[in-house]
Specification:
The protein has helices spanning 2-17, 22-29, 33-41, 48-58, 71-74, 86-110, 129-142, 153-159, 193-209, 223-238, 241-244, 249-260, 264-273, 279-287, 292-300; strands at residues 162-167, 173-178, 182-188. By secondary structure, it is mostly helical. 37% of the residues are buried.
């Protein structure tokens, strides 16, 4: 009964995560609502075919129902019928895929198809955004990037020991560290490449800096400030402020955004950080998002910033 109760809890969580009522799910499976209620209560057993249909209807991996949530994920906010939000549902679906991905990665390592990497984790405390930016630059140097654009972000994540999966799910990303030995992340394909790269860099920041979703906490800040610290790490990793400090005018920033494959909002934040533009000008620039033609022109005729080594590729593949 304990096993079926656990399966029922997972069905309930996945249903709320999908934004469905018990009646909605029953209709999708041609079952009465009372049958769904019994499954969720653990008083009705489910065979393999029904589990497969449940997984398809709720858009979660089949093995999601067969395992308990990892301890590091149980610290996240639980979903309920009354308090679930769109953001919470999106996070739950990403985390369900993350759990399955972590098991896939462990199996691939056991089969010799993947090689376990030593996790790149900052050992000291990170008190503020300045510390987070310093850690991001250290990772760049340790990965032999210095101030060069990151050609493939997935390669950098794997270099740091984090295996990333791109998933066709809404939202941004999710990540966790399993037993201080394996780091995994899931990043949504939704949104433009700049947003995907920012989400991947953010989840890498959670691993490198440590947070409540890992097995240790090394970012000493409130939850809201902690996310700002991780965002600072991601921004510096994607577009170092020392590079932005060399730019000349809006066109120069457009070229940097094209070269480093970042979002325009991230580029303008970095420009404001190094005080090449003030807050008012940053707001005006953000309202003038570069057109696709501008970005293509910038990619075709990039100028090499003075802080960049010669020979940097002009067009980067986005992952």
């Amino acid at each position: 009964m304990r096993e079926w109760s656990r399966v029922g809890e997972r069905v309930r969580d996945a249903r709320i995560g999908a934004g469905l009522s018990q009646a909605d799910l029953g209709t999708a499976l041609s079952l009465d609502r009372t049958m769904i209620a019994k499954i969720e209560a653990g008083t009705r057993k489910v065979d393999a075919l029904e589990l497969t249909r449940l997984a398809a209807a709720l858009n979660v991996p089949l093995d999601y129902f067969l395992h308990s949530a990892p301890a590091v994920l149980s610290r996240r906010a639980e979903l309920s019928e009354d308090t679930a939000t769109d953001a919470g549902r999106q996070a739950h679906r990403l985390e369900a895929r993350l759990e399955s991905w972590s098991r896939d990665v462990q199996q691939l390592i056991e089969f010799g198809r993947l090689q376990r990497r030593r996790l790149y984790r900052h050992e000291g405390a990170v008190a503020n955004e300045h510390d987070a930016r310093r850690v991001a630059l250290q990772l760049r140097y340790d990965a032999d990037l210095a101030f060069e654009p990151i050609h493939t972000l997935m390669d950098l994540c794997e270099h740091a020991g984090q295996f990333v999966l791109l998933a066709d799910l809404p939202g941004d990303g999710a990540s966790m560290v399993v037993d201080d030995a394996l780091a995994v992340a899931v990043v949504s394909r939704s949104g433009d490449p700049g947003r995907r790269r920012a989400a991947a860099a953010h989840e890498l920041g959670h691993m490198v800096l440590g947070d409540p979703y890992s097995n240790d906490i090394r970012v000493h800040a409130s939850p809201r400030d902690r996310e700002a610290v991780v965002d600072a790490f991601a921004a510096e990793l994607l577009l170092p402020s020392d590079v932005v400090a060399k730019l000349d005018g809006r066109q120069g920033l457009v070229e940097l955004a094209a070269r480093y494959r970042t979002s325009w909002s991230l580029a303008t934040r970095q420009a404001q950080l190094v005080e090449v533009i003030d807050a008012a000008e940053a707001r005006r620039w953000r309202q003038r998002t570069p057109t696709k033609a501008e970005l293509m022109d910038a990619s075709a005729g990039l100028r090499s910033p003075t802080s960049m080594p010669s020979g940097c590729p002009a067009v980067m593949r986005v992952e």
